[in-house]
UniProtKB/TrEMBL annotation:
Family from the record: Belongs to the carbohydrate kinase PfkB family.
Residue intervals of the Carbohydrate kinase PfkB domain: 3-293
InterPro entries associated with the record: Carb_kinase_PfkB-like, Carboh/pur_kinase_PfkB_CS, PfkB_dom, Ribokinase-like
SUPFAM superfamilies given in the database record: Ribokinase-like
Keywords noted in UniProt: Kinase, Transferase
Protein name, as recorded: Sugar or nucleoside kinase, ribokinase family
An MF annotation (GO) of this entry: kinase activity
Stored Pfam families: PfkB
Amino acid sequence: MNTKVLVVGDVMTDIIVRPEGPLVLGSDRRARIESKPGGSGANQAVWLGASGVAVKFAARVGAAQKREHEARFLRQGVTPVLVGDPMLASGTLVTLVDPNGERSFLTDRGANLNLSAEDLGDHLLDGVGLVVISGYSFFAPGPRAAVQSLIERARARDVALAIDPASTGFLAEVGPRNFLDWVGTADWLFANESEAQLLTGEADSERQMRQLGEQFGQVVIKRGALGASCGGAAGIAISRPAPQVRVVDSTGAGDAFAAGFIAGLMGKADLETCLERGVANGARAVQHVGGQPQGETAVISP
């Protein structure tokens, strides 16, 4: 399998709000507020770049911000394939972080909503061994049609596919059955435990794995502080615990996990090693604010 990865997903600016205590309706609460680059697909691409994986990232951004986004991705070891939208600005996400590091989101997807099949040309698949698609791309008609077209072309070229459901809120809104029908079969599914429960209607992890394994060749379920499991239609094959770390902000932890796992996969590591690399990446991610690695790790020539 070729080791280059193509990621398709959203580019966002994350406005991260950490109140000192419960919100006071109609009044003030002191808070620490930071602005960070984000978006689930963008996070995964940057974590892959930080892991030394050759990665391309395709998305739609505001035309006025396109050059800035491209420069940042290049500095972070990612080859950006971005289309500038003349009407909508890049997306923005407000994240409210509670004292335990858990998050709630307010999302304006902006230019991401105009992603089209023309933005995802056949050339994106050249030399690619795995296409990773963020579930956010399935939650609006235009982007959904765009990634479904890319999926069909990837299947025709025998390029492996990985899906990350991305959001229980949007999954519940569109309906789990619709989401699974829109996605179709794929080689990999990376879901957290809440997404796995919503997609299957099962609370038991073994039943979740078996049911999801009927549609996806390999299933990885991320369980936060409990670690993660990998398996398929035969059930859970491997599980690994997570190390105990101080959780500052869980934003992007699942994206970091997926990138660590995929980096191992692209390096031809066994599944046990891939799972361990994913868990380690997720643990690193929760120890700082924001969904992407701290610091710029690589440079790619445009």
